[in-house]
Specification:
By secondary structure, this protein is mostly helical. It contains 21 helices and two strands. Strands 1-2 form a two-stranded antiparallel ribbon. Strand 1 and strand 2 form a beta hairpin. The protein is globular, with a radius of gyration of 22 Å. 56% of the residues are buried.
Length: 527
């Protein structure tokens, strides 16, 4: 079974190479991309079943090099679950982009560049999730960031180049901080293997641990868009093509959150910065949702809600109990799927109405009732309306905080409830204006525009094109993702039980070095 682990990274890289070779054969590139991500999804599902049923994590020392000299790939329940969810999202967005490219002649997502870059992005994401040492985690980040630099500037419009430059500069700063932290950790402890760090970190003085801890948290917080380091996200994501924005919003910030989870639960168990994280989480939730309230452009609204909901994940991580960690994992899975689905639905709105500004879009309930449903369901889910998965995840987080029972915890619970209500209000206001407002209702138009004139439109809102045809595959893919969001509620019991088990394992010290040595012995026996 451990032989399947490296395929999670090597298959997308091989697929990217093949797609690049057949740069002028669109159908070949599409076929290669779809088959590659489908295979990764199947392998990830098998690995998830294996590690969950046996309770034994899988570790592979690539090339047979002993720890800590070799690259260690590590798959536990958390890594396997996130690879499965990421594969589903990446495959769905790929199919959405295929429809968009076929309809637009690949003007917005040029196929020659898009497919190789997209598969490299997938390889970077998978590599980050299964990295067993900090340097390989850094390599995963750099792989996905290099690909994201290309994807975020597709089309080479002025707004995309401008925001792409900001994204690149911020990402480079984060990478430099991360690399400096890795160098300092290696200099202090002689290893960057996460398993060994979890055992050796206690050897360092507390002040030294704190400095290293904060360096890593700062680097990961930039990648996760934690306030006040989230300033770059609302301007960077909305200008990219719809498929790129969807996959970025769903996955890239979660890679940063995942790195924070590994750091807090495995490396720095005895170095408590939870109070700081709680304060940052509250600020992230409130500032993000207030930013969303002030926007009139749907992509920017969703980008600000993305920031605010990262606050929920940091909140659960800072509570730091097994129950809270399990709730955090469940909410991360929920948010990856729901946020991606909402951006796909907004992509349909943009094509149908020619704009994503709620100052301009109206009458879609009658003109496009299917799109209305595809937007409404994930919107109320993200807003935390019962009985959807958003409500389940938030309630679990609030309950875990209430069990701790400190005044700061109750303050975070109140902040989380307020953020949830404001999120629901913001998304339903957009739905009301874009869908319920009649297209031919000229009598009330001046009054409506005056009431919402305080909203800030996107810098590039006027650059959006006119109405375009919506291929069936784009609608079908979005509907499929909506079905997945509903499945998160329908199968909340088994999924939450899995996440609770993950929370228990993260909160319980285990000898990862022993697991890795056993896996290496098994590989040796098989050879």
């Amino acid at each position: 079974m451990s032989a399947l682990v490296p395929l999670l990274v090597t298959l997308p890289l091989l697929g990217a190479a093949i797609a690049l070779i057949f740069g002028r054969a669109r159908r070949v590139q599409v076929g290669v991309s779809v088959v590659t991500l489908t295979l990764v999804l199947a392998i990830a599902a098998v690995l998830l079943y294996s590690v969950d049923s046996t309770g034994q994590a899988l570790a592979v020392s690539v090339g047979g090099w002993p720890v800590p000299f070799g690259i260690v790939l590590y798959v536990d329940r958390l890594a396997a679950l996130l690879v499965v969810i990421s594969s589903v999202v990446l495959l769905a967005v790929l199919l959405f982009s295929v429809g968009q490219g076929a309809a637009d002649g690949d003007d917005d997502t040029p196929v020659t560049i898009f497919h190789p870059s997209y598969l490299i992005l997938a390889a970077g994401i998978f590599n980050a999730f299964i990295a067993g040492d900090l340097f390989n985690l850094y390599v995963g980040f750099e792989i996905l960031l290099v690909a994201s630099y290309v994807l975020i500037t597709l089309g080479s419009t002025e707004s995309r180049i401008r925001t792409g430059v900001v994204y690149i500069v911020v990402s480079l700063v984060s990478s430099i901080l991360f690399l400096a932290a890795i160098a300092a950790i290696y200099g202090a402890l002689g290893t960057v293997n996460i398993a060994q760090l979890s055992e050796r970190m206690a050897e360092l003085p507390q002040p030294t641990q704190l400095v290293l801890h904060l360096m890593l948290l700062l680097a990961f917080s930039i990648k996760a868009a934690v306030f006040p380091l989230s300033f770059w996200l609302p301007d960077s994501y909305p200008t990219a093509p719809a498929p790129v924005t969807a996959v970025f919003a769903g996955l890239l910030t979660k890679v940063g959150v995942y790195a924070m989870i590994r750091t807090e639960t495995q490396i720095f168990r005895d170095n408590d910065v939870n109070t700081l994280l709680l304060i940052v989480a509250l600020a992230t939730m409130i500032v993000g949702v207030l930013g969303a309230l002030a926007q009139a452009e749907l992509k920017r609204i969703l980008s600000f809600t993305l920031v605010s909901h990262v606050g929920y994940l940091v909140f659960g991580l800072a509570v730091a109990t097994p129950v809270a960690l399990g709730a955090t994992i469940y909410y991360m899975v929920h948010h990856i799927v729901v946020q991606t689905t909402l951006f796909l639905a907004v992509g349909l709105i943009e094509r149908r109405a020619g704009s994503t500004s709620i100052l301009k879009v109206k009458g879609l309930m009658r003109a496009a009732p299917v799109i209305a449903v595809l937007y409404f369901l994930p919107a109320v889910n993200l807003g935390g309306l019962p009985p959807f998965s958003g409500f389940i995840g938030k309630f679990a987080l609030f309950d875990a905080a209430a069990q701790v029972g400190t005044p700061l915890m109750y303050t975070l619970v109140v902040g989380g409830v307020v953020t949830s209500l404001l999120t629901l209000y913001t998304l339903m206001r957009a739905w009301n204006l874009a869908f319920w407002r009649e297209d031919d209702d000229h009598a009330e138009e001046p009054a409506v525009v005056e009431r919402i004139s305080y909203l800030g439109d996107a810098p590039a809102a006027d650059e959006q094109g006119g109405r375009r045809a919506i291929p069936r595959i784009m609608t079908t893919t979005t509907a499929g993702m909506v079905a997945v969001t509903v499945a998160l509620t329908a199968f909340a019991g088994p999924l939450y039980q899995l996440c609770a088990t993950i929370g228990d394992s993260l909160a319980t010290p285990i000898s990862l070095v022993q697991l890795q040595q056993e896996a290496e012995s098994e590989q040796g026996a098989q050879r």
